[in-house]
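Reply to dn_fold:

You asked what the input looked like. This is it:
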Amino acid sequence: MGNRILHDFILKTRLFLWFCAVMVNMAQGHPISFSKADANVCKDKVTLHVSVLCEDYFLFYGLSPNDQNMLQAEEISVATEGHKSFLLKYISVLDKQGNKLTGYVAKVQPFDVPAEGVSVDDMSKSRYSTDYILQYDLDEPVDFLTFSQNFGGEEAFVPSVMELTIRQEGVEIDYVSQLGCGQAHILSFDWSAPPIPLTAQQRLARQQKRSQQQAAMGISSYVSIYSFIYIERFEIRHEVLIPFLTLESFIPVKRKDNNFLDIQEQDAAKEKIAEFFTIRNPVYIDGIKVKGVVSRVDFYGLDFKDFAMMAPRQRLSVMNARVGVIISYYTKGYPGQLDMDWELFNPNVPVLRSTIFTNDKTDKFVFSRFRRQFHWSDPGLEKLPALGMVPSPLPVPKLFVSWLSVCFSTVMVLVLFLWLKNGMKRGGMATIIVLLLLSLISWGHCRIEIDNPLRGDYEISQIQSSVVFETLHKNIYRAFDYRAEGDIYDALAHSVGGDLLPELYLIIHKGRLMTEQGGAASRINEVSILDGKMLDCFYNEQGRATFTYRASWTVDGTVEHWAHIHERTHQYEADFVLQALNGSWRITDFEMLDEKRLKYRTRLRQF
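and this is what came back:
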C-alpha cells in the first residue's frame, strides 16, 4: 500500500512538473497554438467552453495575408465555422473505459471582425478570440473523465497547448493544468461529497502556493526545444529554439542576478553559446566535416510571438526567456549526403524532435541518446542550370597610322606633283625615291590610333536587345543563389564587366537584406521583367558594340526562420549599358531611376 501511494505521488509530481514546464515554455510562443478551455462537469452533461484565438485559424488553416499583411474577414468567417468540427475531432473527453464521449457544438460566439480584417501582428490578441460551447450529454454521473487534445492530428507540425480549468457543478477543482498535444489529464469525481466554493482568501492562498511551488522547481524539467533543419542549395541550416534554463543546464551563463539576464550579459554569452553549438552539433556533408557558422544568437521574452523577427533588446527573466540559435553549414553545390549529430542530452532533454525541410517537403526526426545521428541523401532534386552566355560582335579593328610616315608621304606627293608639272627635270626622281624610302622606314614609328572610317554605325533590333538584356539580368540574380561571397562574384562575372562588378554586388546584396529580420539576406524566388526597351545602340570609343536599355522589374524575396516565411516584393526601374567584351555581352553600367516596396507579408510554411 505504501509503495502504491509513493508511486502515485511520484507520478503526480512528474505530471505537475511537466505541466508547469509547458506553461512557461509555450504560453505565448509563436508559432504555437494556445487556447483556453473551461470544463464544467455535471451529473447529466459536460460543458466545455473553449476560447480560440484568431491565430489558430492562421496556424491550422493556412490563411493567406493580403499585401497589407491582413487576414481577410471572409476567410476568418469560413475558418470560424470550420473550427467547430475541428474541436469536436481533436478534443477528446473519455469515460472510465476509454470510450470517447459524443459531443456537439451548442453555441458559437465569434468576435467582431473588422471590415479590413485582422493584422497578422494582432491575431494573438485576446480581443480576437471566438468562444465555442461544446456539450457532451451523460446517461449517468461519471466517476472518472480523461481530457486530451491533439490539435491537427498525429502528424501535426504546429505545437499546441490548451489551458484547462475543470469545475464540478460550477465549482473550480483544486488546480488548473495545461495540456500539450497528445497529453491526457485524468480526474475523478466524488458525487457523494462534491466540492464547495472557495472563499476569496482561500483562492488567493492557493494561487500563492502554486507560485511558490513553481519558483522552487524552477524549470529544470523544461523539455520543449524546437529544432528545424533546412536542406537547401549551398546551405544546411539548423535552427534551435531552446528555453534559457534548459540551455544553462549544458552551458552556464554568468549573471549578477539569478532571476534576470541583462543586455550586457546576453551580449557576453552569445559568443560562448555560438561556439558551444558548433562543437556539439557536428555535421558531415558528403562525408566531409563542415564547420558551422552561427549567424544568430537571439534572446526572447515570454511575450514575443514570432521568433523569426528581431527581438527587442531588453532585460529578461530567466524563468521564461528563450534562446534562438541559427547555425549554417555552407556547401559548394547541392549536397548529396548529410549526417548530423546531436549530442545534447540530459535528464531535462531526453529527446530532440526536429522538423526537416527540403524544398516543399517536410519530414520529422527524433534525436535520442540511442539515435543521435540524422542521415539524409539526395533524392535527385533539381540542380541549378548553367548561367546563360550571349555571344557578342567582335570589336571593329582600329587603324594605326605613323604621323611621321604621313608627313614624308605628303611631301613626296607634293614633290611628285611639282616634278610632273615642271617637265620632270633632272634630280626630281631622286628626291621622290628618298622621300618614299623615308616614308616606308618611318611607318613603324610615331604611330597613332584612329577610328576605322569604314566601320559604319552599330545596329541591333529591339527583339535582339531584349533577349540579350533578359539573359544577363536573370544571370545577375541567379548569382545570389550561392552563399559564399567569392562564388557570387564568380557567377556575376559572367554577366557584369568593368568596375561595375563590386558596385552591383553591394547594391543587390543591400536590397536583399530585411532589417525586420535582423539583417538576414532574403532568398530571391522570382524576378519578373515588367517592361523593357532599347534606347540607343552604337560603337563606343573602343569600337565595341554598345546599347543602352531601360527596364522595370519586380523581385520577390523570402526569409524563413522557425517555419515562418516572410515575403517581400520590390519594384525597380533603371537604365543599363551593355557592351561587347571578350566575345560576349556584359552589363558595364547602370543608373537606378526608381525603387519601391510593393508588399510585405508573413505566412506559415505548409506541411
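Residues 2-26 form the longest helix (25 residues).
Hope that clears it up.
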